[in-house]
Design a protein that fits this description.
alpha/beta; six-stranded parallel sheet; 22% strand
């Protein structure tokens, strides 16, 4: 039986956030009710283009609108925690782009706000809804991987030219794209970490956050498990084509990400490797939004967001993310990732950077449950 309940959605932040507007407009259980951006000219331009009547330049005023059921936050990272907490306290369900927060204490405050409000919170982590992740998850669930033996994640990019608040950001402060697929495939949390920084970025970048490293690489112990995982992250002054990758080594089969975007990944059975064509998983979605795994707002050469030109379009994940958030509300269940998982994935990177600044000291991750 089709559930015809409708959720009124408000999107806050209309750079990358605009990508989700047509998804919510076409989802069978949502009304794309309101948009919010401080720049009124851009707000009206997008509102007119997508025919959205309700528009706000003030986040605080938006939260006073009783017609809004859920808020999808796509603002600069230093605003994520403050806005998520305010929205939860205002009685709104919250979806927030990564990372959840910039400190462990902010993560804890979001968990507490979610528990107090009873509303849903979901960190919109693209890496656990890409077609590559869904493919490897299928290999795991059908037993083709066998026992998972080790996992490795990597996220490297050059963020020169991105908005100023990114400049000099510690690599592991924005590591959820590399951490999340590993922990999701292990179906577990990170317990503690030892991380080393390597290399050095320019002084004008270092001074902003006090982080000198060009690269940070970490080894995590997975909680109540015999598994470990390795994560590498770089943001500035390190030559590499953009990559958000994960490798999984299993008893029966292993999956390795391709070196170049133009190639296909490899599945190994024993020592024999074969490149594979990863299928699309649009069939898991309502028919009305299936096309958005391969198309969106930022498709044309003249209209490309940095997350697409440097991130490869996030692997068709956007409609899967929106659908999971919406259905967690409709079905009154926890989304994936829920607030606890989001806090663990985010704090894993924060603790890793803390370890790097202390020359690899073992740092236990906080327990949020």
């Amino acid at each position: 039986m089709v559930n015809e309940k409708k959720i009124n959605i408000a999107i806050v932040g209309l750079g990358f956030g605009a990508e989700f507007i047509p998804i919510y407009q076409n989802h069978p259980n949502t009304v794309m009710y309101a948009i919010c951006q401080r720049n009124e000219e851009n707000l009206n331009k997008i509102g007119d283009y997508f025919n959205i009547e309700k528009r706000y330049t003030s986040f605080e005023e938006l939260l006073e609108d009783d017609q809004i059921d859920a808020v999808h936050i796509n603002t600069p990272i230093h605003l994520h925690a403050k806005q998520s907490i305010a929205a939860l306290k205002a009685g709104k369900h919250v979806a927030c782009t990564v990372p959840m927060a910039t400190t462990i204490e902010e993560c804890r405050q979001i968990v507490e706000a979610q528990q107090a409000s009873g509303k849903k919170y979901m960190m919109m982590e693209t890496a656990v809804y890409t077609r590559e992740f869904l493919y490897v998850k299928e290999l795991r669930d059908t037993g083709k991987l066998g026992r998972i033996q080790f996992l490795r994640g990597k996220h490297q990019q050059e963020m020169a030219g991105w908005p100023g608040y990114w400049e000099g950001l510690p690599p592991m402060h924005y590591a959820t794209h590399a951490i999340s697929p590993l922990l999701a495939l292990a179906e577990n949390e990170a317990e503690y970490v030892s991380c080393f920084g390597s290399g050095q970025i320019a002084e004008n970048l270092t001074e902003k956050y006090g982080s000198p490293f060009a690269v940070e690489t970490a080894l995590f112990k997975i909680r109540n498990s015999n598994l470990a995982m390795e994560v590498t992250r770089s943001l500035f002054e390190t030559s590499r084509e953009y990559i958000e990758s994960f490798d999984v080594y299993g008893e029966k089969a292993s999956f390795e990400w391709q070196q170049l975007l133009s190639e296909n990944p490899i599945v190994f059975i024993g020592e024999d490797g074969k490149r594979v064509n990863v299928p699309d998983y649009a069939y898991l979605l309502p028919e009305s939004i299936q096309r958005f795994t391969t198309e969106g707002v930022y498709d044309s050469k003249g209209n490309q967001h940095l997350s697409f030109t440097q991130g490869g379009g996030h692997g068709g994940s956007h409609p899967h993310l929106a659908h999971e958030f919406v259905m967690s509300i409709i079905e009154n269940r926890s989304p994936f990732p829920d607030v606890y998982t989001s806090a663990n994935w985010t704090s894993a990177g924060l603790c890793a950077h803390e370890s790097a600044m202390m020359n690899g000291k073992h740092i236990p991750l906080p327990v949020f449950k």
